[in-house]
Amino acid sequence: MFEIGTTEIQVMGCLVHADTPETVISETGIAQKVVLDIFKYLHHYRYIKVVDEYGKSKAMFEADGLLHTYFMLTAKGLAEISKQEKKGTP
Fold this sequence. Notes:
Blueprint: H1 6-13, H2 21-28, H3 32-44, E1 48-51, E2 70-73, H4 75-87
Antiparallel strand pairs: 1-2
Helix pairs in contact: 2-3
């Protein structure tokens, strides 16, 4: 089971609007390898979805181009952020 921690919440906080892992890395200062792993898990567990730069959903993406692929929170992702905020986790 995938557990949402403070690092995952920090990454998810950057994805309220469509953004790329590359931008999240530069904004958070988290190591690239860690951010990419988090993106893969968040996508697998449907906390985030693949979108175009305007936020319109896309069906697929190429794993080789992950750094430049746009992602955005799903309703499940937004609910998780809200739940963590209520708990007091930053």
